[in-house]
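User: Is it possible to get a 3D structure for a protein together with its bound compound? The compound here is zinc ion. I've pasted both below.
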Amino acid sequence: MPSMRAMVLGAPGRPLRPAELPVPPPGPGELLLKVLACGVCRTDLHLVDGELPDPKLPVVPGHEIVGEVAGLGPGVEGLAIGQRVGVPWLAWTCGVCRFCRSDRENLCDQPLFTGYTRDGGYAEFTLADARYCFPLPAGDPVAQAPLLCAGLIGYRAYRMAGEAKRLGLYGFGAAAHILAQIATAEGREVYAFTRPGDMAAQAFARRLGAVWAGGSDAVPPLPLDAAIVFAPVGALVPAALRAVDKGGVVVLGGIHMSDIPSFPYRILWEERVVRSVANLTRADGLGLFAKLARTPVATETVRFPLEAANEALAALREGRLQGAAVLVP
Ligand SMILES: [Zn+2]
Ligand SMILES: [Zn+2]
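Assistant: Yes, that's possible. Here is the predicted structure of the complex:
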């Protein structure tokens, strides 16, 4: 049986370990994919740190997968060997619960998630349910990888921010750097909030089209129509509420966040809204990739070999990355 290299999480709180695993055969409806690149997402850090409940263990992390179809399971139609596809976080949904039946499969009662409750892309090969993959155009797979989660979650959060003209982005990492380009291309004004004093990140944000960039403790020059908080820092929620105008919405884009401190009712008053965004739907993916076909974005990436997954995670944890870390097997 052929084998493949993979990086495996055996238990939360432990580093990933390199392993030789059998190349899995595709089951009904599944694709066997040769992984060309796999992005490293903050959710992977939460997984490694034990902040997500009930992972499959051991598990191969990674849910920003750019792959090439290397095998077709029984019943797969419309895809061919050699075709390029992307695999996102949403790996499978039940199709019958009340959320699935009301166009909210992101909230499915019994979902499976790539690189969390099924094996992901920190490997040379992976399996994916063909119905949850997105066809991708040719191009640099490393540049495409961050679109599969940072891009998708950013896009869903952007949709939830509504028609905001003045849009604040708290935490200028992988998601924000993609979204800033989309929002700017659509005529929005982007206000970027970084760690206080992080002048490099602020310059990066301005370079990608932000009309203003400053520390997360700063007050923007004008009240915002909406803000998206990508950093997993609960203290940013009242800060963002203070920055948005009447009727403004604060969208929380992370899967995990430190506790939100209490705040006075008056900063929520006047119909300000705080909401989270969970996962994605396939419709989000189709919407994003259709948009990117018309308005390409440039992703900033830092490439690591597969075996350096622990180093990539450490760099993300310490805020040392400008752009997104991507593993290449
Ligand atoms: Zn469901
Ligand atoms: Zn992610």
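The CA atoms of residues 207 and 271 lie 33 Å apart. The mean pLDDT is 96.
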